Hints:
Layout: E1 4-8, H1 19-27, E2 30-33, H2 35-41, E3 46-49, H3 53-63, E4 69-73, H4 83-89, E5 96-98, H5 103-111, E6 118-122, E7 138-142, E8 147-148, H6 149-158, E9 165-170, E10 178-182, E11 190-191, E12 195-200
Parallel strand pairs: 1-4, 1-5, 2-3, 2-4, 6-7
Antiparallel strand pairs: 7-12, 8-11, 9-10, 9-12
Keywords: Cobalamin biosynthesis, Methyltransferase, S-adenosyl-L-methionine, Transferase
Pathway: Cofactor biosynthesis; adenosylcobalamin biosynthesis
Protein name: Precorrin-6y C5,15-methyltransferase (Decarboxylating) subunit CbiE
Amino acid sequence: MGWVKVVGVGPGSPEYLTKIGERVIGEADYVAGAEELLKTFAPGKKHLSFGEFGAVLKQIKDLSRNFNIALLLRGDTGFYSLLRKIENEEPGLVTEVIPGISSVQLAFARLKKLWDGAAFYSLHGRALPEKLKEEFTVHVFLLGEKINTSSLKQLLQKHGLERASYYLLYDLSYPEEKIIKLSFDDLPPELSGRGILIVER
């Protein structure tokens, strides 16, 4: 009987892969994940690339009867990750979870700020929230597909955040990483990509 271990590979750069994550990938007979992650973190291994997600999970389940499989997820496995979907579709498939460093951790480290008092809103395939959590002074938006900034500005104005500090962080850990401090009025017309918007009252 083999195993299936979920490995959080960090924000993208191999420099942020943990030692235990590296070891598990090395011990695996097959490595599953998005094509970009497989090329970066598991060159030379047998790959199971995410295509039709349900079909890949079934293949992983079948192979795990005889082989060890590492399933790569970006960032922290317990923070807005595919782990929930995996557990919903194939309960009990995963034998161990190896957490990674999230882009949120890296973002606040880059800014040299704490994030224990922040509220989080994932926009990966999700609409903007109708309202923000007013008890928090820091609001973190995890960007995904293109977001119309005018709708976001209306939401921020509704909560009196026109004079807050704004930070846009893109492609964290990659060579093209960008960190931009800007004002409410300087927000670009659209937000998208591998980015995080941090709003600090």
